[in-house]
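Exercise 7b. C-alpha coordinates:
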Protein backbone atom coordinates (compact mmCIF):
# COMPACT_ATOMS: atom_id res chain seq x y z
CA UNK A 1 0.00 0.00 0.00
CA UNK A 2 1.33 3.42 -0.91
CA UNK A 3 2.02 5.98 1.84
CA UNK A 4 -0.84 8.15 0.50
CA UNK A 5 -3.25 5.22 0.63
CA UNK A 6 -2.13 4.31 4.12
CA UNK A 7 -2.84 7.86 5.27
CA UNK A 8 -6.34 7.67 3.73
CA UNK A 9 -7.04 4.31 5.36
CA UNK A 10 -5.86 5.65 8.72
CA UNK A 11 -8.25 8.60 8.41
CA UNK A 12 -11.09 6.27 7.41
CA UNK A 13 -10.48 3.97 10.39
CA UNK A 14 -10.27 6.95 12.75
CA UNK A 15 -13.71 7.98 11.50
CA UNK A 16 -15.06 4.45 11.95
CA UNK A 17 -13.80 4.36 15.52
CA UNK A 18 -15.07 7.82 16.45
CA UNK A 19 -18.40 8.02 14.60
CA UNK A 20 -19.47 4.40 14.13
CA UNK A 21 -18.01 3.10 17.40
CA UNK A 22 -16.32 0.19 15.61
CA UNK A 23 -14.37 -2.21 17.82
CA UNK A 24 -10.68 -2.79 17.28
CA UNK A 25 -11.48 -6.21 15.80
CA UNK A 26 -13.75 -4.59 13.22
CA UNK A 27 -11.13 -1.95 12.45
CA UNK A 28 -8.47 -4.63 11.98
CA UNK A 29 -10.78 -6.51 9.60
CA UNK A 30 -11.37 -3.33 7.56
CA UNK A 31 -7.65 -2.65 7.37
CA UNK A 32 -6.93 -6.20 6.26
CA UNK A 33 -9.60 -6.09 3.53
CA UNK A 34 -8.36 -2.73 2.25
CA UNK A 35 -4.75 -3.99 2.25
CA UNK A 36 -5.77 -7.01 0.17
CA UNK A 37 -7.66 -4.82 -2.29
CA UNK A 38 -4.68 -2.50 -2.59
CA UNK A 39 -2.47 -5.44 -3.55
CA UNK A 40 -4.81 -6.20 -6.45
CA UNK A 41 -5.55 -2.71 -7.82
CA UNK A 42 -2.55 -0.64 -6.78
CA UNK A 43 -3.50 2.77 -5.42
CA UNK A 44 -6.89 2.73 -3.71
CA UNK A 45 -7.10 6.51 -3.59
CA UNK A 46 -6.87 6.88 -7.36
CA UNK A 47 -8.46 3.57 -8.42
CA UNK A 48 -10.95 3.85 -11.27
CA UNK A 49 -14.16 1.94 -11.98
CA UNK A 50 -12.21 -0.27 -14.38
CA UNK A 51 -9.61 -0.99 -11.69
CA UNK A 52 -12.27 -2.12 -9.22
CA UNK A 53 -14.15 -4.15 -11.82
CA UNK A 54 -11.09 -6.40 -12.09
CA UNK A 55 -11.46 -7.40 -8.46
CA UNK A 56 -14.36 -9.72 -9.34
CA UNK A 57 -12.02 -11.97 -11.33
CA UNK A 58 -9.27 -11.61 -8.71
CA UNK A 59 -11.68 -12.81 -5.99
CA UNK A 60 -13.08 -15.65 -8.09
CA UNK A 61 -11.93 -18.43 -5.76
CA UNK A 62 -13.11 -16.75 -2.55
CA UNK A 63 -16.30 -17.64 -0.73
CA UNK A 64 -19.28 -15.36 -1.56
CA UNK A 65 -19.37 -14.19 2.06
CA UNK A 66 -15.71 -13.08 1.85
CA UNK A 67 -16.33 -11.27 -1.44
CA UNK A 68 -19.36 -9.52 0.07
CA UNK A 69 -17.37 -8.45 3.13
CA UNK A 70 -14.46 -7.07 1.09
CA UNK A 71 -16.83 -5.24 -1.25
CA UNK A 72 -18.66 -3.73 1.71
CA UNK A 73 -15.37 -2.50 3.20
CA UNK A 74 -14.41 -0.81 -0.07
CA UNK A 75 -17.85 0.76 -0.52
CA UNK A 76 -17.69 2.27 2.93
CA UNK A 77 -14.14 3.47 2.32
CA UNK A 78 -15.05 5.25 -0.94
CA UNK A 79 -18.22 6.71 0.58
CA UNK A 80 -16.00 8.22 3.27
CA UNK A 81 -13.61 9.68 0.66
CA UNK A 82 -16.50 11.30 -1.20
CA UNK A 83 -18.16 12.61 1.99
CA UNK A 84 -14.89 14.19 3.13
CA UNK A 85 -14.19 15.73 -0.28
CA UNK A 86 -11.14 13.55 -0.86
CA UNK A 87 -12.64 12.19 -4.09
CA UNK A 88 -15.28 13.57 -6.43
CA UNK A 89 -16.45 10.21 -7.73
CA UNK A 90 -17.29 6.86 -6.15
CA UNK A 91 -16.00 3.92 -8.23
CA UNK A 92 -17.42 1.26 -5.92
CA UNK A 93 -20.45 0.55 -8.13
CA UNK A 94 -18.11 -1.68 -10.15
CA UNK A 95 -17.56 -4.00 -7.17
CA UNK A 96 -19.16 -7.46 -7.26
CA UNK A 97 -22.37 -8.04 -5.32
CA UNK A 98 -22.61 -11.78 -4.64
CA UNK A 99 -25.98 -13.16 -3.64
CA UNK A 100 -25.87 -14.53 -0.15
CA UNK A 101 -28.25 -16.89 1.55
CA UNK A 102 -28.08 -16.35 5.27
CA UNK A 103 -27.66 -19.70 7.03
CA UNK A 104 -30.41 -20.61 9.45
CA UNK A 105 -29.26 -20.66 13.07
CA UNK A 106 -28.77 -23.95 14.86
CA UNK A 107 -31.33 -24.23 17.62
CA UNK A 108 -32.27 -26.39 20.57
CA UNK A 109 -35.87 -27.20 21.39
CA UNK A 110 -37.30 -26.42 24.81
CA UNK A 111 -36.99 -30.05 25.97
CA UNK A 112 -33.27 -30.09 25.21
CA UNK A 113 -32.73 -26.80 27.04
CA UNK A 114 -34.67 -28.21 29.98
CA UNK A 115 -32.37 -31.25 30.05
CA UNK A 116 -29.34 -28.97 30.17
CA UNK A 117 -30.82 -27.11 33.13
CA UNK A 118 -31.70 -30.31 34.97
CA UNK A 119 -28.16 -31.63 34.57
CA UNK A 120 -26.61 -28.30 35.58
CA UNK A 121 -28.89 -28.01 38.63
CA UNK A 122 -28.02 -31.55 39.74
CA UNK A 123 -24.31 -30.71 39.61
CA UNK A 124 -24.79 -27.36 41.34
CA UNK A 125 -26.65 -29.07 44.20
CA UNK A 126 -23.27 -30.39 45.36
CA UNK A 127 -22.16 -26.82 46.07
CA UNK A 128 -19.03 -27.29 43.96
CA UNK A 129 -17.65 -23.88 42.96
CA UNK A 130 -17.42 -24.56 39.21
CA UNK A 131 -20.85 -26.20 39.07
CA UNK A 132 -22.55 -23.25 40.78
CA UNK A 133 -20.77 -20.85 38.41
CA UNK A 134 -21.77 -22.92 35.38
CA UNK A 135 -25.43 -22.86 36.36
CA UNK A 136 -25.27 -19.04 36.65
CA UNK A 137 -23.65 -18.88 33.20
CA UNK A 138 -26.38 -21.06 31.70
CA UNK A 139 -29.17 -19.03 33.32
CA UNK A 140 -27.78 -15.79 31.87
CA UNK A 141 -27.06 -17.22 28.41
CA UNK A 142 -30.52 -18.68 27.89
CA UNK A 143 -32.46 -16.34 30.18
CA UNK A 144 -31.13 -13.04 28.82
CA UNK A 145 -29.80 -13.88 25.35
CA UNK A 146 -26.35 -12.43 26.00
CA UNK A 147 -23.51 -12.73 23.53
CA UNK A 148 -20.52 -14.71 24.80
CA UNK A 149 -18.32 -11.59 25.09
CA UNK A 150 -21.09 -9.67 26.87
CA UNK A 151 -21.50 -12.47 29.40
CA UNK A 152 -17.88 -13.15 30.31
CA UNK A 153 -17.11 -9.42 30.62
CA UNK A 154 -19.95 -8.61 33.03
CA UNK A 155 -18.72 -6.62 36.04
CA UNK A 156 -19.19 -8.14 39.46
CA UNK A 157 -21.98 -5.72 40.35
CA UNK A 158 -23.95 -6.15 37.11
CA UNK A 159 -26.73 -8.20 38.74
CA UNK A 160 -28.43 -6.46 41.64
CA UNK A 161 -31.11 -7.76 43.99
CA UNK A 162 -34.67 -6.78 43.02
CA UNK A 163 -33.48 -5.16 39.78
CA UNK A 164 -35.05 -7.07 36.85
CA UNK A 165 -32.69 -5.65 34.25
CA UNK A 166 -28.96 -5.41 33.76
CA UNK A 167 -26.99 -3.00 31.60
CA UNK A 168 -24.91 -4.68 28.91
CA UNK A 169 -22.22 -3.15 26.72
CA UNK A 170 -22.59 -4.83 23.34
CA UNK A 171 -21.11 -4.46 19.86
CA UNK A 172 -19.68 -1.04 19.07
CA UNK A 173 -19.72 -0.24 22.81
CA UNK A 174 -23.49 0.30 22.58
CA UNK A 175 -25.34 -0.17 25.84
CA UNK A 176 -28.72 -1.84 26.21
CA UNK A 177 -30.98 -3.12 28.97
CA UNK A 178 -31.66 -6.85 29.05
CA UNK A 179 -34.08 -8.66 31.36
CA UNK A 180 -32.85 -10.99 34.05
CA UNK A 181 -35.22 -13.58 35.47
CA UNK A 182 -35.66 -14.29 39.16
CA UNK A 183 -34.11 -17.71 38.50
CA UNK A 184 -31.01 -16.13 37.00
CA UNK A 185 -30.81 -13.63 39.86
CA UNK A 186 -30.96 -16.45 42.38
CA UNK A 187 -28.28 -18.42 40.52
CA UNK A 188 -25.96 -15.40 40.33
CA UNK A 189 -26.52 -14.53 44.00
CA UNK A 190 -25.64 -18.09 44.97
CA UNK A 191 -22.48 -17.83 42.86
CA UNK A 192 -21.52 -14.50 44.44
CA UNK A 193 -21.94 -15.95 47.92
CA UNK A 194 -19.20 -18.53 47.32
CA UNK A 195 -17.04 -17.00 44.57
CA UNK A 196 -13.66 -15.34 45.27
CA UNK A 197 -13.97 -11.66 46.16
CA UNK A 198 -11.67 -8.75 45.35
CA UNK A 199 -12.22 -8.95 41.60
CA UNK A 200 -13.73 -6.64 39.01
CA UNK A 201 -15.51 -9.42 37.14
CA UNK A 202 -18.62 -11.45 37.80
CA UNK A 203 -16.91 -14.52 36.32
CA UNK A 204 -13.20 -14.09 37.06
CA UNK A 205 -10.41 -16.30 35.79
CA UNK A 206 -6.89 -15.62 36.99
CA UNK A 207 -6.21 -11.90 36.72
CA UNK A 208 -8.93 -11.31 34.11
CA UNK A 209 -12.38 -12.66 33.35
CA UNK A 210 -13.43 -16.02 31.93
CA UNK A 211 -12.44 -16.27 28.26
CA UNK A 212 -14.86 -16.88 25.41
CA UNK A 213 -12.98 -20.08 24.57
CA UNK A 214 -13.41 -21.39 28.11
CA UNK A 215 -17.11 -20.47 28.06
CA UNK A 216 -17.47 -22.42 24.82
CA UNK A 217 -15.85 -25.46 26.47
CA UNK A 218 -18.05 -25.17 29.56
CA UNK A 219 -21.26 -25.00 27.51
CA UNK A 220 -20.29 -28.04 25.45
CA UNK A 221 -19.48 -29.99 28.62
CA UNK A 222 -22.91 -29.10 30.03
CA UNK A 223 -24.53 -30.30 26.81
CA UNK A 224 -22.68 -33.62 27.08
CA UNK A 225 -23.86 -33.97 30.70
CA UNK A 226 -27.44 -33.62 29.43
CA UNK A 227 -26.95 -36.27 26.75
CA UNK A 228 -26.94 -33.74 23.89
CA UNK A 229 -24.21 -34.02 21.22
CA UNK A 230 -21.71 -31.29 22.25
CA UNK A 231 -21.09 -30.21 18.64
CA UNK A 232 -24.71 -29.03 18.46
CA UNK A 233 -24.34 -26.57 21.33
CA UNK A 234 -22.43 -23.33 21.86
CA UNK A 235 -23.06 -20.04 23.69
CA UNK A 236 -24.45 -18.61 20.45
CA UNK A 237 -26.81 -21.57 20.02
CA UNK A 238 -28.25 -20.78 23.47
CA UNK A 239 -28.67 -17.15 22.40
CA UNK A 240 -30.55 -18.42 19.34
CA UNK A 241 -32.71 -20.59 21.60
CA UNK A 242 -33.52 -17.54 23.75
CA UNK A 243 -34.68 -15.62 20.67
CA UNK A 244 -36.52 -18.50 19.02
CA UNK A 245 -38.43 -19.53 22.11
CA UNK A 246 -39.39 -15.93 22.93
CA UNK A 247 -40.74 -15.46 19.41
CA UNK A 248 -42.62 -18.74 19.68
CA UNK A 249 -44.16 -17.46 22.91
CA UNK A 250 -45.52 -14.38 21.16
CA UNK A 251 -42.75 -11.79 21.57
CA UNK A 252 -42.85 -8.82 19.19
CA UNK A 253 -40.04 -8.77 16.62
CA UNK A 254 -39.08 -5.19 17.50
CA UNK A 255 -38.87 -6.07 21.18
CA UNK A 256 -36.71 -9.05 20.30
CA UNK A 257 -34.44 -6.80 18.21
CA UNK A 258 -33.94 -4.55 21.22
CA UNK A 259 -33.26 -7.44 23.60
CA UNK A 260 -30.69 -8.99 21.26
CA UNK A 261 -28.99 -5.68 20.49
CA UNK A 262 -29.39 -6.02 16.71
CA UNK A 263 -28.75 -2.79 14.80
CA UNK A 264 -30.86 -4.00 11.86
CA UNK A 265 -34.29 -5.64 12.12
CA UNK A 266 -33.30 -7.84 9.15
CA UNK A 267 -30.88 -9.67 11.43
CA UNK A 268 -33.70 -10.42 13.87
CA UNK A 269 -36.09 -11.57 11.15
CA UNK A 270 -34.07 -14.74 10.60
CA UNK A 271 -35.79 -16.16 13.68
CA UNK A 272 -39.20 -16.05 12.03
CA UNK A 273 -38.31 -19.20 10.04
CA UNK A 274 -38.58 -21.40 13.09
CA UNK A 275 -42.19 -20.69 13.91
CA UNK A 276 -44.01 -20.61 10.58
CA UNK A 277 -46.75 -22.91 11.88
CA UNK A 278 -47.60 -20.51 14.71
CA UNK A 279 -47.65 -17.58 12.30
CA UNK A 280 -50.08 -19.38 9.98
CA UNK A 281 -52.28 -20.21 12.96
CA UNK A 282 -52.12 -16.57 14.08
CA UNK A 283 -53.25 -15.29 10.66
CA UNK A 284 -56.09 -17.83 10.52
CA UNK A 285 -57.26 -16.89 14.01
CA UNK A 286 -56.75 -13.11 14.07
CA UNK A 287 -57.05 -11.79 10.51
CA UNK A 288 -60.41 -10.02 9.83
CA UNK A 289 -61.10 -12.32 6.86
CA UNK A 290 -60.65 -15.43 9.00
CA UNK A 291 -64.16 -15.12 10.45
CA UNK A 292 -65.85 -13.76 7.34
CA UNK A 293 -68.54 -16.10 6.03
CA UNK A 294 -69.18 -16.58 2.32
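Sequence design result:
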Amino acid sequence: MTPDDRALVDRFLDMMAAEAGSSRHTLAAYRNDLDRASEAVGSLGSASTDDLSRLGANWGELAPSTVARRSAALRRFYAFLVDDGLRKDDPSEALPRPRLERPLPRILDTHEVQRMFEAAEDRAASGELAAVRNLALLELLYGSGLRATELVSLPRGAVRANQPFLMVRGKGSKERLVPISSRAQAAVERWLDISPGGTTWLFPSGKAHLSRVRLFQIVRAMAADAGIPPERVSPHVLRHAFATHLLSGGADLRVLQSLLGHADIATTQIYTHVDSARLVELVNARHPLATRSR
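Instructor comment: The radius of gyration is 24 Å. The chain has 14 helices and four strands.
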